Amino acid sequence: MSAGTAYERIRRELPETVTIVLAAKWRTPEEVREVIAAGATDIGENYVQEADRMAAALGPEATRVRWHMIGALQTNKITRALRLFDVVQTVDGAELAVALNRRAAAAGSVLPVFIEVNIAGEDNKSGCAPEAEAVAGVLAEISALPHVRAEGLMTMGPAGVAQDVLRKCFRTMRRIYETVRHEAPAGAALQTLSMGMSDSYRMAIDEGATMVRLGSVVFGPRCRS
Ligand SMILES: *Cc1c(COP(=O)(O)O)cnc(C)c1O
To answer: In Å, what is the CA distance from 8 to each residue of 4, 63, 216?
Structure first.
């Protein structure tokens, strides 16, 4: 099945209220062009350099979709990232937010960001601690910055765990999201819960995801070229 057809099929299956971000890492511009032609609205990239190349290859086509940074963002790439991305989903704390704010101010823009949460508290993963107080703390710091706006929470679930463990993570994430939205003063602006990938998106939506990030289920297995 082509990527365009796979996208259309999944798009039809999922509630309209759920946004699909297509994770384009290691895909060709032709593959991305195909999903945009099939109606894709949001594309995710993990690396600034790759996003740059992709946008250049796509030309005007690139402006038809929103671009999400879904990989770790190095501070020395922020200026380029601001030119490329509509949303940075991987803000793991105030330090990155402050750096983004400074560059966005220079560019005269306001950047939507998501706070990344390390939901299973894994050592090798970035993200805010998986507690509502910690997330509310980062949110409060971001809300003091005029050129970044926290609009969502994002998590990468732990890999290789049993389904019920993953479900519990998603459920905890939903609880943190709801708690922060309703109890933190800056929480009102949160409107997106980004969680779930190819192997877990249905479960994530069951547990309250409003945005899923899909790669292999649409584009096929990944092979680094
Ligand atoms: C690659 C990637 C995805 C999509 O992964 P699949 O398992 O291929 O769907 C989602 N989110 C992030 C942050 C990724 O890097």
So the answer is: 6, 20, 14
10 within ligand 1 shell (Cβ under 6 A):
no
Locate the ligand 1 atom nearest the alpha carbon of residue 25 and give its number.
1
216 lines ligand 1 (CB under 6 A): yes
Nearest to 4 by CA among 28, 39, 29: 39
Q: What distance in Å separates the CA atoms of residue 68 and residue 5, rounded to the nearest whole number?
A: 22
Shortest-distance Cα residue to atom 7 of ligand 1: 198
Is the C-beta atom of 25 inside 6 A of ligand 1?
yes
Q: What are the C-alpha distances in Å from 200 to residues 23, 157, 162, 188?
A: 14, 9, 11, 27
- Dihedral over alpha carbons 152, 156, 161, 167 (to 10 degrees): 10
> Which residues neighbour 196 within 8 Å (Cβ) at sequence distance 6 or greater?
157, 170, 202, 203, 204, 205, 209, 212, 213
| Predicted structure pTM score | 0.97
What confidence tens digit (pLDDT) does each residue in 92-127 have? 999 999 999 999 999 999 999 999 999 999 999 999
Per-residue pLDDT reduced to its tens digit, 131-153: 999 999 999 999 999 999 999 99
